[in-house]
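Subject: Sanity check before I submit

Could someone independently write out the structure tokens for this chain? I want to compare against mine line by line before I put it in a report. The sequence has 247 residues.
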Amino acid sequence: MPRAGELTYYQSLGERGRRFALNKPFTGRERGLVMMEIGAMLTLLPPTPARVLECGCGTGWLTHFLQKCGYQATGVDVAPAAIELARTNAVLGTPGAAEFHVMDVEAMTFDNQFDAVVFYAALHHALDEEAALRSAYRALRPGGVCVTSEPGTGHGRKGAGAAAKWDTTEKDMPPKHIARLGKKVGFRRSVYYPQGRDLGRLVFTQDPLGGNALIRFLLSLRPTRYLASLWLMLGHKRNKGITVLYK
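---
Independent answer below. Compare away.
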């Protein structure tokens, strides 16, 4: 069962917060990095017009985006208010083009119906992520893929304030943990990739990671940034990155 705050989150946001959520991915200072991440995930999905299920879709912006790309897209979220917003999302949505359901991702009723399942910053909100991945596995056809992009190691500590404020679940969700649970529920193989937004932050932004003065100086040097990008691609992706699970 979800925490109470996850059922009422969008009511608690207020009108301004709901408008911000509805206008994703065009809102926020990191909109360009978010689009890089979505682009990275798109390249890992099967070709259109595959059937894709987004778990924890919120206001449905990514589900609508997938539909605009040519996928047969379905979104599910545990919060009725989120699904109501998703069905009426006028920013990206075309009425009736994408399908939405109020459903707990830990207990979905889909069986052998989808070519791909997507978790974008959603699996770390699950009380039981193993149950969510088992539901995703069951929803997939043989040969299907589950693509996840989640906050990695350390997020539980960073998100503690938000969890207390909104009564939601915030936890670490590194790729190595997702891969271990994926194998446990039946996925035959897993592959890690660096997050598109992290690579974009290192390569394109003026202040890639913040930090102390020495780190800021080192990362102001292009060679250091490229070495840091290589570190993301070769090693750190196990702690924070995109995970692809193959059924």
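---
OP: Matches mine. For the report I'm noting this point. The chain has one domain: 4-194+240-246.
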